[in-house]
Specification:
This protein is mainly alpha-helical and 66 residues long. It is built from 5 helices and 2 strands.
Amino acid sequence: MKFGMRKPSLKKSIKARTTGKIKRSVKKAVVPGYGKKGMGWVKNPKKAAYNKVYNKTSFSIMDLLK
């Protein structure tokens, strides 16, 4: 588990910003429950619990600049 500042990744940052609206809208039409709040807990509770703790205990460099 990571505590403290996360190491920035330019490749992942660009990927996250360019995965587009069209891809999300297609998935929302095809996959029931996609994009709904709390679906992570239904699909994979172990991963959802890990992500909740990870996001509360770590921060990015962008959080420091805000």
